[in-house]
Amino acid sequence: MSEGYPRVWFCTSPSDSLLYAHARRMHEFMLRNGIPHEYREYSSTARKLDHVFNVLHPEYPESIQANEDIVRFFLDFNQRT
User: Fold this and answer.
1) pTM for the whole thing?
2) Helix H segments across 20-60?
């Protein structure tokens, strides 16, 4: 990774049938290699949070939180640059 590579933010859910396992492996790889990133997992006992749940179901409380976290990440990033 280049030193100028920007910090990465990504999220998933244990019920993401498409990419959960890949996201976990990417997170673990980045941790092992000291790559700056922010990783979040969202879960719910009330509903299945499948792939892109925050876009497909923006009304879910978990989606609202995920979208707020995304916005915060970019606002923080812009303030640092």
Assistant:
1) 0.85
2) 20-32, 53-56
